[in-house]
Amino acid sequence: DQSIHIAQMSSAPSVSLETLEQSWNTIKDGIEETKRIEAENRRERDSFENLIMNQLMNNNNDLYGVVYGLVSVAVEVVCGELEIVKPIVKISDEFAQTGCYVPEIKELHIGRRYANLTSKEDLIRLMEIIAHELRHKWQFDNNHASLEDSYITAAEDKDAYRNQWIEKDAYAYGEEHREELANLIIEVMKI
Fold it and tell me: Rounded to whole angstroms, how far apart are CA atoms 158 and 152?
């Protein structure tokens, strides 16, 4: 009797056909979803590149002019939200490679490498920098920061730099507003 039971167990499949079918369908669905997401990302990237190309054609291939115009719109929006006066805006590496608000001369500097917009991700990063640096202007204008404060630069100590209240606040603000600003700029570019 025991040998019959063992023989029956060894001849029966350990995984049912129904389970195999469900697994296969799950795999197929996952592949199709991945293809759909990749196609959507490709369309979005192509759409952004077309927007930039249209802006360039409308502005005599002046990428600097296009980017400066987009930066100006973003600065205007953030300054309005923070209720601060718009600073002088420069695209230069004079004070920092990424971005820098210089309170002594009330200027916002955006690093030149961020003037090379090739993707929506580049635009999002640029918007994050603008929001971050203008938050610093708000901090100074509202006496939440001063030139007398001991400030640690990223070059001195990256961890200590990121842990300063002034930077935590600016990073949080930049991260919170980057997507919204980027989408607004894309809408402006379509006009």
Answer: 8
Q: pLDDT tens, 135-173? A: 999 999 999 887 777 888 888 999 999 999 999 999 999
Q: Residue 160 is which amino acid?
A: A
The pLDDT value recorded for residue 76 is 92
H-state helical runs in 12-164 = 17-58, 63-82, 120-141, 158-162
Query: What confidence category does residue 191 fall into, taking pLDDT thresholds of 50, 70 and 90?
Result: very low
Residues facing 39 on adjacent strands: none
| Cα 97–Cα 101–Cα 139 angle in degrees, nearest 5 | 140
**Cβ proximity of 117 and 65 under 8 Å:** no
Q: How far is residue 60's CA from residue 64's CA, in Å, rounded to a whole number?
A: 11
- Taken as a whole, the chain contains a residue count of 191
| pTM for the whole structure | 0.69
Q: Is 34 exposed, middle or buried (0-12, 13-18, 19+ CB in 10 A)?
A: exposed
pLDDT digits (tens, 9 = 90+) for 93-143: 887 778 899 999 999 998 888 877 777 788 889 999 999 999 999 999 999
Question: How far apart are alpha carbons 188 and 65 in whole angstroms?
Answer: 15
One-character DSSP codes across 104-117: TTTEEEE-GGGG--
